């Protein structure tokens, strides 16, 4: 009996595997978008949940293959039993998807790490069975995240580290989110090129010519941009129901939709100055804006708007939201001290702190925030007079617009490995939004302190930065200087060293990934 021949690889095809909610995995969605744009048949594999970015639902050559959620009965079982059963269920479902649901073996399998268990082992097995080339995208180290919960000396952490070390070392190529991640793994883990399956002279030449260990810094897609006043006006009209609580309506400037929002307005036609009473400069009432019939003005930003500060958090212990809360308390005290100042350049504005994201600690912190905002429970009589905080969950289309409409971003990300960078800052930079970022080892690969943001290490430093950047808002010179750096980076000549480097995801991906993916094809064509 003859053995069944191995199906031929489908060239220019890729399976992108993320063991998580696809809609909450931006880097992997951007990978899939770039593969499809470069004419790869792309299979994006992961779990249902948040809505994927719109392009994944409209681009040709993209198939989204959803994995089955683990059975709900597992939640009732002890972890020592439920954990292995969940992993076994995931293994079987991933194998079924990669071996059966994809008709022809894809040329590449791109897998996100972490999570490491069981994905690294599964794709290693599939690569041997189907002849696919594995690319590991190192976002972080899985065992280091587990160590935050259990401690570095825990048995499970040691097992997870050995698992990640063994199956993570061998792949066709390795992508890294930072230079620090590449340097550590290359030196400490001795990352290798998988040669056991590539015995042809073409593969050998390819191996000798390239190391296949490349840094692919995160960059946002082109839809992340600075929002125009018109885009901001439309967004805030859409978000008005989220600002309708009593603690916010008594805090935000009065508005009259669709002509005004707490942040934007459509200027009405002006009454000639000669018709005004003596001493009256303008008839504009920001609380009752309604353009006259001949008005054709475009929306503008309000001068009396609060400063809009945005952060995205997972509401987990590894992102210390309490630090931000302490900084806001200190800012409130500083703003009160400035109430009597006559010089507008020295005053501190009101802050609306918008927090996006979901997570286990959200309710705990939002209850404390509500107490600070309401005090004795009577609307408008809260302990905080100059600060409000609201938690929002945004659709994929709204999130870039919110960042593009904000004045300042905050990152509380603290890397478990010290070698990854927060995607939230990347998104903010794509929208021309400066950040105050919690410092850690390799943050300077992204945040240039004093150029595109400021780095803090505790609540006191963050509070001081908020005061220095927002003083005199909306004409805050320190904030304007950081905002100007994005324009300088965008227009800097190629190879210039006076500016920090920046670009879109597509530009970065094509520069790094295209040579890696098309290298084998070029050699084979030459031979």
From TrEMBL:
Signal peptide segment: none
Job of this protein: Participates in the formation of the lipid-linked precursor oligosaccharide for N-glycosylation. Involved in assembling the dolichol-pyrophosphate-GlcNAc(2)-Man(5) intermediate on the cytoplasmic surface of the ER.
One CC-aspect GO term: endoplasmic reticulum membrane
EC number: 2.4.1.142
Keywords: Endoplasmic reticulum, Glycosyltransferase, Membrane, Transferase, Transmembrane, Transmembrane helix
Protein name (database record): Chitobiosyldiphosphodolichol beta-mannosyltransferase
Pfam families: Glyco_trans_1_4
Keyword match Transmembrane: yes
Compartment(s): Endoplasmic reticulum membrane
Gene source species: Pycnoporus cinnabarinus (Cinnabar-red polypore)
The UniProt record lists the keyword Transferase: yes
SUPFAM superfamilies (UniProt xref): UDP-Glycosyltransferase/glycogen phosphorylase
